[in-house]
Amino acid sequence: MPKFVTTRDLEFMFQGLHHCRVKAGTPVRWQSGGTGGYVVEPAHVELPPTQARGRGTLWAHDTHYHFIWIESDAVAEAEG
User: Fold this and answer.
1) pTM, whole model, 2 decimals?
2) What is the largest CA-CA distance in the chain?
3) FRET pair for 72, CA 20 to 30 Å: which of 22, 31, 39, 59?
4) How far is 45 from 63, CA to CA, in rounded Å?
5) Beta-carbon neighbour count of residue 40 at 10 Å?
6) DSSP label of 10
7) Cβ neighbours around 21 below 10 Å, total
8) pLDDT for the residue numbered 59
9) What's 51's DSSP letter?
């Protein structure tokens, strides 16, 4: 099964609540459920120092969905 990574640094607002960053080279995986597409694991998402850390913080408002979808043009198959 191929492994995928982000090809560039990404900055985005997650669900309009959290300013997040994902660095280039971060592992991603294909998620076929929901809307489908590539997702980043919550452990690989950076939050600003002023925000609390941890998965519970990102999903304090919604504990049903635990995926962070990213743009497919920012993903490539990992080398090696």
Assistant:
1) 0.75
2) 39
3) 59
4) 17
5) 21
6) E
7) 14
8) 56
9) S
pLDDT for 74 equals 94
d(CA 2, CA 55): 26
Q: What one-character DSSP code corresponds to residue 57?
A: H
Residues lower than pLDDT 50 in the chain: none
38-52 confidence digits (pLDDT tens): 998 877 888 877 665
Q: Tokens standing for 27?
A: 């592992």
The amino acid at residue 68 is I
DSSP-H helix ranges across 1-80:
55-58
What six digits make up the tokens of 32? 């076929």
63/61 Cα distance (integer angstroms) = 7
CB 47 within 8 A of CB 54: no
- Asked if residue 28 lies in contact with residue 70, where contact means CB atoms within 8 angstroms, the answer is yes
Adjacent-strand bridge partners of 11: 21
